[in-house]
Amino acid sequence: MLLSGAPAMASTGSSMADLQPVPLNDAPGSGSAMFEVDGTTLHFTLNYQGLLADAPHAAHIHFGADARQACPTAEDDADGDGFISTTDGAPAYGGIAVSLTTEGDTSPDSGLAIDRFGVGDDVSYSREGIEVDQATADAVMAGGAVVVVHGVDHNGNGEYDEGDRGASDLDPALPGEATDPALCGVVMASQMDDMPAGGVDTGAAALGSQNLLLAATGGVALVGGALILARRRTDSVN
Ligand SMILES: [Cu+2]
Predict the structure, then answer these.
(1) 99, 188, 189: which is closest to 148 by C-alpha?
(2) Residues annotated as region Disordered (predicted)?
(3) Measured in angstroms, how far is the CA atom of residue 190 from the centroid of ligand 1?
(4) Which of 117, 127, 156, 234 is deepest in the core (most CB within 10 A)?
(5) What are the tens digits of pLDDT across the range 26-46?
C-alpha cells in the first residue's frame, strides 16, 4: 500500500476497484483489484473468491472514452436473453484495455488466453511493470477504467457448457458461460498524492475505502487511549 513515501507527482498514484456480481448473471463471488501507477507503468493485485471452482476466469481492465465507465445493469441485456454477455456490457465498460494475465502478454490480444488467467474459486495474483498507453494509465489512476472478471456457471452444473446460454458472443468455439462477465468494479482513485502530510482529518474524505478503514482503526485506538487516561485520573482522585 502507498500509505507513505509516494512521490508527489501527478503521474504517480494508486487506485482500487471493489468487484461485485454483474446483475442478471448473479455469479456468487466478490473481489478487489488494486493498482499502482507510475507514469505508464502499472502494477496490479487481483483477488476474487466464490466463482466457479477449477475453471479459468479471464480478467481485464476495460476502458472506453465513450463508454459509461460503469458496470452493466440489467437494462444492458440488449437482446433480452436474460444474461449479460460481454458484448451486452460494452456500452457500460468499453473494450479490453489490459488483459490481467498471470504471465506473458497483457495486451487486448490476450483477452481470451484462458491458460494464463486465474483458475478457481479463491484466486490472488500480482503483476509488476506492465506498460500501458497514457489513456489507460490516466483511467486507472483517475478513475473511469472498469475491472471485469469473466466466467459464470449459469446452470450451476459445475462446468462451463452451452446449456441454456449457448455459445460465446466473443468466440463461438467457447461456451457463453466461459466469457460472460461475473464480477465488475469501477476503478476509484485513492488520491493519496493529494493528502496533506500528517493530515488524516483533512485527507480522510479523499482516501479510498481501505485507507478509510485504517484511519478509522487509528481513531478507535486514540479514543481507547483517552478512555484509559480518564479512568486513571479518576483513580488518582479517589
Ligand atoms: Cu473483460
Answers:
(1) 99
(2) 1-24
(3) 23
(4) 117
(5) 999 999 999 999 999 999 999
